[in-house]
Every structure is written in structure tokens, then in C-alpha cells.
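Customer ticket, subject: "Can you confirm the structure for Glycogen debranching enzyme?"

Message body: Hello, I'm evaluating your service for our small team and ran a test protein. I'd like someone to confirm that this is what the system normally returns, since I don't have a reference to compare against.
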Amino acid sequence: MPLLADASSFQRRSAKDAHAAAIPTVEDLRSVAMVHRFGDLFNLPGLTNQWGCAQAAFDPVGIRNISFPPYAQGEQNTAPAGATGEIVTGFLYVDGEYFASLGLPIEFVWRPDRIERRARYRDFQLSSAMIVPFERMAVAVAFTVENIGRARQGLELRLGLRGGVTKSVAPWDQAYSPGEFDNEHLVDTERGAILFKSRRTAAYAMQGAYPRADEVRPAWLVYRLNLAPGERRTITFVNAIGGDERAVRRSFDELAHNFEREAVRVRKEWDEELASAFTPNNARFSGHLPTLVTSEGAIRRLYHMAAMSALFFKRTTPHSIYGRTYVTLAPRYWQTTTFLWDISLSAMLLAMLDPAVLRRMIETWMQLDVHKHFGTEYLTGAGVGPWYSVNDFAMCRMAREYLRWSGDRAWLDKRVAGERVIDRLIAYARHWRALDVNGHGLADYGGISNLLEAVSNYVHEVASLNAANVYNLRFAAELLAARGETGQARAMSAEAVDLVRRVLELYVPGEGIWRCRLPDGSYHEVRHCYDFGTVLTSIGDDLSSQQKSEMVQFFRRELQTPTWMRALSTRDTDVTFSIRPDHQWTGAYAAWPALALSALYRAGRADLAVEWMRGLASSAGQGPIAQAHFAETAFAPEAGGGARKAPSDPPYINDWACVSGCAYLEPIVESLFGIRAGLFGEISAEPNFASFDPRAELRNLPYQGKLYLASRRGLERI
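Agent reply: Thanks for trying us out. I re-ran your input and got the following:
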């Protein structure tokens, strides 16, 4: 059993302090200081203004992955082999040398409203603050150089400029954001800036700095400094983009000359956004989240980062055909796309925070053939990508969360594209039958591209999604029974019982793991966390106590690490297939630890879950949970002891943040506080705090139009 992580960076507070910290501010969410140099396995932090994103580059000033769809300064495929050219701008040279090439350490600190960077070169302290102001398509970096030596010193600074701006209102159906290599360059001598202009679309980017550089060239801004001891100089670099040249120039001017004012406004906006997320009847969401009051700073931070995962992926851009929506990854990949799978893992949180948008997303996907695509994108509404095998389960899970927290039973009779919602849900629950192509009584989910992609032996008749089919059938049966359609309800319940029996045939006694069944009837064992989490949370009550005990032993022995986990056991035969950390032995996808926490509770091990939750909180010290973190056994932990975010560069290809970080709300609300929220107005609580703060409370819990207070004592109406 691994030793559990020390969560001392998030100390216990007094009850008074705990109440004050229950509504987080940007300062409460400040990351640990992460010190890295070029070449480290480090995912550079990103920012959003809910219109788009930008990411810090590997120097104190540079910016990468600037994207405000339909406008972007993205990446392009430059060779048949798939080489890509990434557009970075504002990148720093000191005394003629590219800063990143010097191998000097850079300190990165993230907050929702800014990224702070700090480094030292010779006897100069270099520090910066980067912001992405709300309701603009622009990024600004205020960069300060201070002479910390004892003598006057000179220093030449250059900021390298690249445009790459484009506009694309076609479906963004590739992982990379679009960009162009051959923008026109127009020098604006008055501003000391460069206007980049797309040759193909109505897109502009103005880049420059204030005060004006000593030299302004098409690809450079050059500053020659001569500073006395203790003297400092601050330069504000701005990149503004858009489709109207005058508006772009105006945005540039306003930011270049008013950085501090804009920085204050961004901070206030984020503090208001965070407060609104926990406030009933707020003006920013169609719902709100319950407030966690506890002296346990570690678990409180994990809970707040679950909320931040929703706010980071909320999109209010006027270019969305849906209006307000939520996307899946940022700041590099799939900028306009929402994946069914990830939203389904975030569904409990979204059902509380923004139920109207969750319902709209479900209805959007009901009008799509969910057996052909993994999601949709918001610029055009087009379907994106291939079918993911989880989609039937995802649709049922999202619908169940929406229904049970909202109480909107009338929705079941709404017609979406000519068909009632209830009929669509029943069809999803029954679709497994069409996938029983081998006659084994189990759904065959095909090859790796429909499943975990990075695990080549997790294919065909897998335990996880066949257990999920039982969940779907029971959900549909419960809906039918409540509507008085008892015959259909009994038939689907009986079908679920039969399916459970066949799923249990995949279990490996004594090992705590599951087999995949192949089309020819043969089996092979797979030691993967998705079976552990999904089977226990879908059909946990159908497992024997012996099976649950063996599964927990497997998890502790082969998957769990102090502050994260492995998705695949290092004892599995597929460990050499890939080193992608989302699904392989090198780490785990954003939501897998959250799913495992719920599974531990279903197996009766609240004690293990609470202790591990404190360790996981250390991994929430780098900003919102990443698409994947490395297991500490594969790569050294980040500062503060948390599992390091995996980089977005190949072969790891995992983004800095993922919406399914929302999943960490679920084990806290449903397992720790034991909330039992039924579909039809029945709510109760069976708290199981184990070693958790006995005075903790969950306030303003929203359930079907009423508010509740949950504590160790149970549940009471407010």
C-alpha cells in the first residue's frame, strides 16, 4: 500500500476561517509556485475569458495557443508526416539569445485571472503578469525588469512577433486551432506596433508594446535598457485580434495604456463569477452549487477546483450558435468541441450549476446521431469525430442527473426532433442489443478507436460499458414505472438482471479484475481502472462482498498512488503500447480518480477514500485538473507534492485542463455527505465522513426547487 500524501500545503483552518473561505476568490485558488526550464515535462498554464483562451510560453513574456473562435493564431500541418507549426508570439530574447535556450529556471504561478512568471538573468529580475480581459479578444502581459545588482547595467531585450491570425467559421473538427503562416505585416509607426492581416479571411492581429520600443521591425520589438541598482522598467505587451481593423487597434490601445485597470477588472470579474457559482438565484447561471464549509483546506480546495473546472470551460462568446455552453479541453486542443463522455462525467455538477444549459446540450445530442460522433462544436453545431462507445451511457447519465436534481418530469414528454425524450432514453438503454453482434449476450464495442485509444487490449465485450448498460436499463425501468408503464418497466428490469449475470462471467476470481470477451468467444484479462470504477458505480450492489474486497485490493496494490493513480496496472501486458498518461500506466485521465473515489465508497471503504481524497487535493494545486496527470511513480511530482500535469506535446497529447475535473464534486456530495437524491422528489442523506471534519456542512444544496443543509447529522430543509 502506498504511503498517502502530506496535504499540509492546505492546512486546517478555524471554523470562522472555514466559513470565510467557503466561497473562493482568485487568491484562494492560487497555484503552488512551479519552477521549470525548457525541456522539462511541464504543461504551461493557460487562461480564459470565456470567449477564448491563451497559454503562457516557456519564457517570462511569450504567449501561445491564442484562440477566440472563430479567430485564432493556432497551428498548421506543415508536412505530409504531420509536423505542426505552433504560433508563439511575444517570445523573449535577452542580449540576442532566445531566453528558453539558456536553460534558466522560470517560476510559474496560476490564478483564474492571471499567470505570473518570474526568472533571473544575470543580475536582472524578470517578472510578468499575463491577463485575458473579459469581452475582448486580446491578451496582455505586463513585464518588469529590475536591476538587482550593485552596479548600473545594460540589457537588450527583443520580443519576437508572429501573427498567424485567421478566421474560420467552418467546423473546427481537428484537435488544433487554425492559423496561417503568411499574414501581411504592416508597421504602425505611431503605436510602435505591427498589424498582422490574414490574406484569406477578415482577420487582424495587432501586436506591440508600451512604452514604445526603441526599434520596431516587422518581426521584432527591441528595447535597450540601462538601469541603475534597484531601478526597474515595466513594458506592457499586447496581442489583440478580431475581424474589424479599427476595433482591433482600439482594443490594443486600451490595453496597452491601461493594464493595471484591466487587471483589476479581470480579478473582480472572476471573483464575481466564483461567488455567483455558489449563490442561489444568481444572474450568471441557471442554478448554483452547494457551499462546502469545512476546516479541511485540502478537501475544500479539491471541491473548489471541481467548480473551477466548470467556470474555466464555460463559453459565453457571441459566436456560439447555442448561446452559453461548455467545452471540454483548453487551452490547446478542440477549442470549440464538447465531448459527450466528458460532460457525462461532469453531469452532477452541471445539473446543479447550470441545468438549463445541460438540458440544451442533451437535446442537441438527441438531434445528432450519437452513434457516429463523439461530440459537437459550437460555431456551426456540426458533429465531430468518430463514435465513442460510451455515448448511450453518457446520454442516460446526463439525463438522469438533470432529471433528479431539477425535478423536470415534464421534459420527458417534450418532443426533440419529433420524438419524445422518454422514447429516446429508452432507445439508448436498449441499444446494447444492436451491439450484441457475436450472440454472446453482451455488447461488442469494437476496437481501440471507439474505446480508450491508448490501450490496445481493451476492446470488444468490455465489463465497464456492459455494466453501464445495466445502469441504463434500470434508469429506463424507473422512469417507466413512475409513469405507470409497469409491463415495460418489469421487462427492462428483468433484462438488466440477465445482463448482470453475463457481465459477472467476465470477472476473474481472486484477482479483482475483469476480462474482455472477443468475437471468437475467447477472453483476455485487462487490469484497467475503468472497469474498477464503472463496474462498482454501475452494479456495485450486484457484486458479492468478496468481489468488492478483491477489487479494492487490486486498486490499492496496482493502481493507487499517494496523490493520483495509474489508469493501467504496470502488471498488464499492454504497458508498451503507449505512454499516453490518460489511459496507460504512466498516469490517469482527469476523472478517473474521482470515479475511483466513488467506487471505493460503493465498496464500503470510506476510510480509504477520505485519506486518498486529501492526497488528490495536492494535485489540485496546479490550477484546474488537467486532462491527465502523471503518476508520481512514472515522473517526479510537481512542487507541493501533487501529481504533475502531463504536457500537451506528443507523445503525451493531454491538455492543461479538462472539464471533467467537475467530477470531483460527485464523491464529496454523494459519497462523503451521502446525499441520496431520487428522481421523483425523494431525498435523504447517509453521511459517511470517516476521518473527515465532523463539523463540516454542505449548505444551500439545491434539489428540485428546494434548498437543504447537509452535515454529519443528515439532511434538513432550509
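A couple of notes from the result: The CA atoms of residues 470 and 496 lie 5 Å apart. The first helix runs from residue 15 to 20. Feel free to reply with more questions.
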